[in-house]
Structures are given as structure tokens and as C-alpha cells.
Amino acid sequence: MKLLRYNYKDKIEQGILENDVINKIKGDFFSGFEITENEVDLSSVKLLAPTLPSKIVAIGLNYVDHAKELKMEIPKNPIMFIKPASTVIGPEDPIIYPEISNQVDYEVELGIVIGRRAKNVEKDEAGDYILGYTVFNDVTARDLQRKDIQWTRAKSYDTFAPIGPLIDTNIDPFDLPISLKLNGTTKQNSSTKNMIFNCYELLEFISEIMPLEPGDVIATGTPPGVGPMNRGDTVEAKIEGIGVLKNYLI
């Protein structure tokens, strides 16, 4: 299923997308729902971030080809950091370029959306705790990241976590083409098969440290080709089978 959150006639709703038609649901993605007979055309709604996580747990340096690009050693354990919920925006929303920064970068990533509370989950059971997958852009003030050494400030500005356009519940996350275009030019192009730690391994690692709640997102790291954006740019993050997440820099 392809799950959406959207604004229709000034009302926030959830639904299931099929052939550009949304069937409104009664209930909630995370606590059970019924599909209603109420239909609305995709073109008549404003898509929102498909989940509102209590936290985003993000992973750095998780693609073999990205590590080679940076001439860095393959990490023995996932490199983990947190982005606050206040960073979340949806499709077509503007990314705000902080005045203090001189370099804001894009990073396309596969996002794991948690379906039920996950704590101390074994990787062989991880799929039972995942609702589905989405597209994530880990926007980063790179100059501030280099200045601060640690990453919290650089990753946490408002609008620095575009998510969308939907959650796909049926997709296989282990070999998905993943790419990003900046102003129509391809900048990143890889596959999730190049991950150092796959989605299930990441869920096992993180859930041993902290509980993951329904709706939380794991951002699984970015492939090579990361680079800067400028005010006025259009950025399109894409994962085959999920869709394109488009945003604008202001």
C-alpha cells in the first residue's frame, strides 16, 4: 500500500493511493484503520509529510561507495545522530537557508518508518516493526558541521528534514535505485544494495539503545555525490517504487 497524509479543503486526512486516486481511511496508520469509499483525486490535495515522528534517528557514512568517495574506512558500527521533530517538512515545502550558513547540502536517503514500538528487536524480526519506507533528505549546514565537529547544530535547523511523498508498505528495501537531482541535473545515483548496514541491522542496533515509537523515522545514510544547494534551487530526491520528494530553497 501507498500511504499518504494530505490537506484537502483545509482538513488534514490520511489515505491510500492507487492510480492517482486517494481512498480516505478511517483511523490511523499506526493503530489500525478502515478504507472508506470516500475518494479524492491526487491532483486536488496538498501532500504533507507522511509521518510526524517523535524523533529521527539518522545514520552517517552508510554506503560503501560514499566511504570510498571520502577515502574513509568502513565503520565497524553505525554512526548515529538525532534530528529533532521540528525539522520535518513535506513535499513541495520550502527549505529555509539559515543566514548563518554558507553551505547547505542535500543528502538523499531511504527513510524507515516505524509501525509499532520497537525495543531490543533482533534483525531477523525487524520487518515486523516497520510500517514502510519513504524518501528522506538529510539537509545539512556543512560549514557548521565542520566547525562544530559534532553534528547537532548543522542537522537541526527548521525545515532540514523533508520527508515524503508517501510511505510504501510493500517495497523491498535491499536493492532500490536511489538518486537526487538539483535543478534537473543528477547529482547522486546509487542503490540501497550498497548500504554498509542494511535496514534490519540498523533497527536492531538502534532499538538496543533506545525505543523507537510508531511514526519514528530512521534515515539510513546517503550515497556519494553530496553537494551544496543555493537559494532558489529545486531539489528532487527519488527512490524507485516510492516516488520523488521535491523541495525548494529559500
Summarize it.
The chain is mainly β and 250 residues long. The chain has helices spanning 64-70, 142-148, 152-155, 199-209; strands spanning 2-8, 11-18, 21-28, 32-41, 46-48, 56-60, 79-83, 88-89, 94-95, 104-106, 108-114, 130-137, 140-141, 161-168, 177-182, 185-191, 217-219, 227-229, 234-239, 243-249.
Notes on the structure:
The protein has 250 residues and is mostly beta strands. The chain folds into two domains: 2-45; 49-249, Fumarylacetoacetate hydrolase, domain 2, CATH 3.90.850.10. It contains four helices and 20 strands. The chain has helices at residues 64-70, 142-148, 152-155, 199-209; strands at 2-8, 11-18, 21-28, 32-41, 46-48, 56-60, 79-83, 88-89, 94-95, 104-106, 108-114, 130-137, 140-141, 161-168, 177-182, 185-191, 217-219, 227-229, 234-239, 243-249.
**Residues in helix, %:** 10-25%
* Structural category: mainly beta
CATH architecture of the largest domain: Alpha-Beta Complex
Return the domain count.
2
Radius of gyration: 17 Å
Number of helices: 4
Percent of residues in β-strands: 35-45%
Q: What's the shape? A: globular
Structural topology:
Layout: E1 2-8, E2 11-18, E3 21-28, E4 32-41, E5 46-48, E6 56-60, H1 64-70, E7 79-83, E8 88-89, E9 94-95, E10 104-106, E11 108-114, E12 130-137, E13 140-141, H2 142-148, H3 152-155, E14 161-168, E15 177-182, E16 185-191, H4 199-209, E17 217-219, E18 227-229, E19 234-239, E20 243-249
Parallel strand pairs: 6-17, 8-14, 9-20
Antiparallel strand pairs: 1-2, 1-5, 1-14, 2-3, 3-4, 6-7, 10-13, 10-18, 11-12, 11-17, 12-14, 15-16, 15-19, 19-20
